[in-house]
Write a structure and sequence with these properties.
Layout lengths: L2 E4 L2 E4 L6 H12 L4 H5 L5 H12 L6 E4 L25 H13 L4 E4 L8 H10 L4 E6 L6 H10 L2 E6 L4 H8 L3 H14 L5 E6 L4 H4 L2 H10 L3 E6 L15 H18 L2 E4 L4 H4 L9 E4 L5 E2 L6 E2 L8 H5 L2 H9 L16 H11 L2 E2 L8 H24 L3 H21 L4
Parallel strand pairs: 3-4, 3-10, 4-5, 5-6, 6-7, 7-8, 8-9
Antiparallel strand pairs: 1-2, 10-11, 12-13
Helix pairs in contact: 5-6, 14-15, 15-16
């Protein structure tokens, strides 16, 4: 019988696809200490993925990330999603078809973002009710969560929320608009009252990094009922992105130090998307770990990488995973031997540009398309400043963690040989 300790309380974990089990499994993944831990995770999910990869001749991602809509009820400063066509959305039939295909491939985890996925809350509930063997995680601004929706979540049990929050009221409302903070906190209260294990999602930047990574703020979120936390570094994707919000190398390094220490001290699943490359073996995009489908149907490596050569209206999911762009992207992974510099967007834009150029992929950033060369003009200086700091941090990492990372990279190369190279 599985249990987790949440805010000092020992909690029973129901079996998959209960949303609490999804957090439990994520904890085991991110806190794994050896390759064996990964191979036995979730009743051997890694081995099943490899077998399916051989059968389908491509990497099978563990999770899908889908944007059911590009519409949003907020207008956050610096949000690249606002550049997308506000009228784009995937119909219920589209979403249902994607999930049916995913289940046939053995993908049983679907995350949704946007836009704001709860603009489509009725369809989300219908999908969760129909696909009872899947678990759903919604990245939401939290302002559309009400008692009726929370009641349905409690009834279905296979939906969890990642509530966006960027600090206290001042920091959250700075980018998201006045009153947003209070609505997010109210949503947390609704979920906690129904014993729903939710997570928080925080974008940190030059103006809020100190608050977001502070013990006081993280303690507060755990007290409000958060079971899990994602932190995302602000990345200047899209034409006209605000470069003043980019963290300095020293700020980013301090966030990493604080997050790592807090997660270990409190046995709390707290993952910094860019700073925890050791935990996900560098870049996990393009099907290696997950794949993103935007509201227009474009199949992208990840939610931040807006390039594609496939659309779900024209290809099946497995055909998109086998596409030249995805295969070439995976062949380029890992983009760096240092897992703190594994993202092609901010660390190796020249490698991303080569992959896009060689495969004829196009920009999917509809409202403000930018070539990888244009993106690189913004992010290359960020990388140049970060590299010496990242190398110093990597050199100080425990030898066991570095050996684990190297072992997993060897396993991934072997898996790649058995899947992509066999076609």
């Amino acid at each position: 019988m599985a249990h987790m300790t949440i805010a000092g309380r020992r909690v029973h974990i129901p079996p998959f696809p209960h949303h609490k089990y999804n957090v439990f499994q994520s904890r085991k993944f991110f806190f794994a200490r050896s390759a064996l831990d990964h191979l036995v995770l979730g009743r051997g999910i890694a081995m099943r993925e490899m077998v399916r990869g051989v059968l389908h001749r491509c990497f099978i991602p563990r999770a899908l990330l889908i944007d059911p809509t590009s519409a949003c009820n907020l207008h956050c400063t610096g949000c690249w999603a606002a550049d997308y066509g506000r009228g784009d959305e995937l119909s219920f039939e589209d979403l249902d078809s994607i999930l049916v295909q995913a289940e046939r491939l053995g993908i049983l985890c679907c995350h949704m973002s946007g836009g704001e996925p709860l603009v489509r809350k009725d369809d989300v509930l219908r999908l969760a009710a129909k696909h009872r063997h899947m678990v759903f995680g919604l990245y939401t601004n939290g302002t559309l969560v009400d008692a009726a929706f929370a009641d349905e979540m409690a009834r279905l049990e296979n939906i969890s929320l990642f509530l966006s929050i960027e600090g206290w009221r001042e920091e959250t409302d700075f980018r998201r608009g006045a009153g947003t903070y209070d609505k997010v906190i109210a949503a947390m209260d609704l979920l906690r009252e129904r014993d729903i294990g939710f997570a928080f999602s925080a974008c940190y930047h030059a103006k809020n990094w100190d608050v977001v990574s502070s013990d006081a703020f993280l303690d507060f979120l755990r007290e409000k009922g958060a079971w899990f936390g994602w932190l995302f570094q602000y990345v200047p994707v899209g034409e006209g992105a605000d470069l003043s919000l980019v963290c300095s190398p020293e700020q980013r390094a301090e966030v990493k130090r604080r997050v790592d220490a807090y997660a270990k001290r409190h046995d709390f699943v707290l993952v910094d998307f860019w700073n925890n490359g050791h935990l996900v073996f560098g870049c996990a995009a393009a099907g290696t770990g997950f794949v993103h489908i935007n509201a227009h149907g474009d199949v992208e490596p990840c939610a931040f990488c807006h390039y594609s050569d496939s659309n779900i209206h024209e290809k099946t999911l497995v055909e998109a995973l086998r596409s030249p762009f995805f295969r070439r992207f995976r062949a380029a992974q890992p983009f760096d031997r240092n897992p703190l510099m594994g993202c092609p967007l901010v660390d190796h834009p020249e490698a991303l540009a080569a992959v896009v150029r060689e495969t004829g992929a196009r920009s999917t950033h509809v409202g403000a398309p930018e070539s990888p060369e244009q993106l690189g003009a913004k992010t290359q200086p960020i990388h140049d400043a970060w590299r010496p700091v990242a190398e110093r941090i990597e050199a100080a990492e425990p030898a066991g963690r570095r050996r684990h990372f190297a072992t997993m990279l060897r396993l991934l190369r072997w898996k790649k040989w058995w899947t992509d190279s066999k076609s």
